[in-house]
Every structure is written in C-alpha cells, then in structure tokens.
Amino acid sequence: MSQPKKLFIKTYGCQMNVYDSERMAEAMGGQGYETVDSPDDADMILLNTCHIREKAAEKVYSELGRYKGLKAEKPDLKIGVAGCVAQAEGEEIMRRQPMVDLVVGPQSYHRLPELTARTHNGAKAIDTDFPEEDKFEHLKSRPKAKRGPTAFLTVQEGCDKFCAFCVVPYTRGAEVSRPAQRIMTEARDLVERGVREITLLGQNVNAYHGHDTGLAGLIRELSTIDGLERIRFTTSHPNDMDDALIAAHGECEKLMPYLHLPVQSGSDKILKRMNRSHTRDQYFALIERLRAARPDLHMSGDFIVGFPEETEEDFRDTLDLIEQVKYGSAFSFKYSERPGTPAAERPQVPEDEKDDRLQRLQALLKRQQQDLQDAMVGREVSVLFERAGRLPGQMVGKSEYLHAVHVTAPENQAIQPGDLLKVRIESSGPNSLSGVLIGR
Ligand code: SAH
Ligand code: SF4
Ligand code: F3S
C-alpha cells in the first residue's frame, strides 16, 4: 500500500470553520491523506480562513509568508486557501501570494478532492461558486473513527440579515438549512463514535427551517437519541427566537441552560444603523421570556464598540444593557471596516476612542462573568468530562453553563473522558471552577 500523504489544516474564525475543517479532513482521508499537527513535513497545507475583521483576514497572508521556505524546499507541496477569505478575495489571493495552488470557497468543499487533483504539475485551481447541491451530502467520510465526547454539527449556513458591518452574507451566501433526517443520521453516527454533547451550528442557527417545527422541532427529535446527553446551539439572532424555541428551554431536558444571543449594541440609534431590526427593549423582553422559561439560563453575547457614529452616550447605553442582562460570557470587538459593507462608508470613530471603549466594556464584562462564576460555589452541577488536567488524577470538563470544571477523583473512581457526573463546586479561580464528585 502506498504511504499516506500528509495534510496540515489550520483553522481560523468561527466554529463553523472548525466543523468544515473536520469534514474536509475526512474527505481528503478518502484520497489517501492523513492529517498532521505541523506544516513542516506536510504534502498539503490548507488554511481555513476568516474574513470577519481586517486582522483576521490579514493573518492569512502573514501565515502564507511563513510557508515560503517550505515551498522552496519541496516544490510539490500544495498550498490551499479555503474559508471566507477565499470566498471574498478569490483570485486576488493567488496574485498576492503566487505560491497558492488552490482557492476554495466555503460552499464548494465537496469539490476539494477534484480541485486538488487539478493542481497537478503546478496548475492552479479555484472554485468560489455557490452551487445548488448540499456540500455536506457530497463530502465522503472515511471509516468511522472514535472521537471525543463533544462535537459540532452544522445544520444551517449563510445569512440573509445584512447587518451593516458584516461580511458573512457575502462570504457564506443566503440562508440554507440541511434536512432534519440527514442531521439525525449524522448525529446518530456521532453518538456511535462516542459523542455525548452536540452543538448545532449555523450563522443564524435559529432561522433553521429544515424541520417542519423549526430548530425547536429538530432539538426535540435529537433528544430522542439514546446516548446523546446534551444539546447546544449557536449562533442565534434575536429576531429568529420563536415561541417554540423559547419553550424548549424550559421543557427539553437535554437542551443546556446557556444561550449565545448577540445584541452588538445597547443603543437604539446604533442598532438601527447596524440594521439589526430590533430595539433594546425588544431584546430585554425576549430575555425576560427566556428566563421565565428557564430561570437559571446563562446568557452570552457579542458586542461591537466604535461602530460608525457611535457617541459616548450610545456606548453608555451598551454598558447599561450589559448591567441589566448580566452575561455569563461574552465576546467583544472593535468595529472593523469591511470593504463592500454599508458601514464602511460612514463617518468612523477614531481608533483611540474605540480602544478606550473596548477596555471599559471588557472590564465590565469580566467583572460580571467572574461574579456569575463565583456564584456557582456551593452548587451542584453536572460535568461532561473531556480531558486530563495538569495534576495527577485530575480531569477537566464543562458544566451545563459551559464553565470549565476541574475535579481530582479518588484513586478508585478514575474519571474517563465522556463521563457525565455530578459535582459540587468548591472554589472559583480566574478562568475555571474546581469541585468534588458527588455521584455518578
Ligand atoms: N451571526 C452572528 C454573528 C456572526 S459574526 C450574529 O448575528 O450574531 C460574529 C461576531 O463578529 C458578530 O456577532 C459581531 O460581534 C462580530 N463582527 C462582525 N462583523 C464585524 C466587524 N466588521 N467589526 C467588528 N466585529 C464584527
Ligand atoms: Fe453578520 Fe448580522 Fe448575519 Fe450575524 S446576522 S452573520 S452579524 S449579517
Ligand atoms: Fe469568519 Fe466566515 Fe466564520 S468570516 S466568523 S469564518 S463565517
């Protein structure tokens, strides 16, 4: 048998890219490639890229620059660029970095094996179409390998919202949902391979319509799979949070009490200019309903500071919103001008102003997150263990609220990855909790 070729994939950006990279690795597995952890002795390097902010996009070019030496030493090394920069910049990538052999957009990954074959003898291959067919149904899997206890599963792709700052509708195309039956099959397969927690992914996952009762219907159906213990989903848009999905948070035991529901800003003026299509009061009302359904729900969010024409007063509205909601976790960013998006044409906030606001916002979020994490001390949580910790016998897992929890088990009760156990929290550190086992 011929030696397997070595594929190194580096993944940037969101969880959907993480999922896509796994599927590409599986597809290339069928072509005789095995994945490796370092680019140094790879036969093919694939960068799965992100275009969301300028810094993310520029990283690709600096990373490519680092491969110059490798390519000079090994001329038949293939270098490919996938993901959202591939979609947004296409051929431009090959102009800026002629050593790139292959450019493939996020909707064309099922064509990767064929594109790779086309790069024989120094030829270039590029595919940034939005084909009709579902890429995932055409991505072949290699023989079923055992895997860790948590997995991502993309159920929806693309975005029709066109927020004024965002490139995603251009890089990922229109909203499409995968049929529920295919998701069920994939989920059962993951569970057979050892997965106990599935996070359903979509750019607007709660706009999912591949099930006749939407995302809530899909979650309820997934709940019937024996051995699947936990379900999460991300990322949601406030406007797509329907009654059934709110109710599911109270009724569906396997659905975890943690919700990522980005609002971006707490100012009605800015929300309007962002084209988010809801007000701050509507967001508050939504959270109230969610917490009525599930009182211990931990909220998470995304925030942008320094959006064009954001004043100090607008920014304070955002701080105020955060004070009221109390987030268990959050991601925050300085507004980054993206070519081709409407907000890039508007009067910009000076960089030092953005820096200052980001610092203040993050200080508040950090305090809040720490308070909520500290409040777990003394409580009983369930922990899905994932990996060994630094200390002998120590294991690390996640609580239902997504807090990292460290537990050192007594010698006769060693914990295995995939164990779902009851833990009493005893202390709270800067980034994680520690506790003791109280039951199996
Ligand atoms: N679909 C999700 C977000 C996807 S992008 C939603 O609507 O919530 C992830 C996050 O990146 C966004 O929530 C936003 O906070 C941030 N983001 C997107 N475009 C940005 C830009 N131009 N500058 C700074 N942050 C941006
Ligand atoms: Fe981007 Fe808005 Fe779509 Fe989210 S909803 S992906 S922020 S355009
Ligand atoms: Fe980035 Fe594309 Fe995800 S721009 S955040 S990789 S959808």
UniProtKB/TrEMBL annotation:
Gene3D superfamilies: Methylthiotransferase, N-terminal domain, tm_1862 like domain. Residues 374-439 form the TRAM domain. Its main location: cytoplasm. Pfam families: Radical_SAM, TRAM, UPF0004. [4Fe-4S] cluster 2 binds at residues 159, 163, 166. [4Fe-4S] cluster 1 binds at residues 14, 50, 84. Keywords: 4Fe-4S, Cytoplasm, Iron, Iron-sulfur, Metal-binding, S-adenosyl-L-methionine, Transferase, tRNA processing. SUPFAM superfamilies: Radical SAM enzymes. Residues 336-355 are annotated as: Disordered. It is an enzyme of class 2 (transferase). Residues 145-371 form the Radical SAM core domain. Residues 5-121 form the MTTase N-terminal domain. It is found in: Cytoplasm. Binds 2 [4Fe-4S] clusters. One cluster is coordinated with 3 cysteines and an exchangeable S-adenosyl-L-methionine. Belongs to the methylthiotransferase family. MiaB subfamily. Catalyzes the methylthiolation of N6-(dimethylallyl)adenosine (i(6)A), leading to the formation of 2-methylthio-N6-(dimethylallyl)adenosine (ms(2)i(6)A) at position 37 in tRNAs that read codons beginning with uridine. This is tRNA-2-methylthio-N(6)-dimethylallyladenosine synthase.
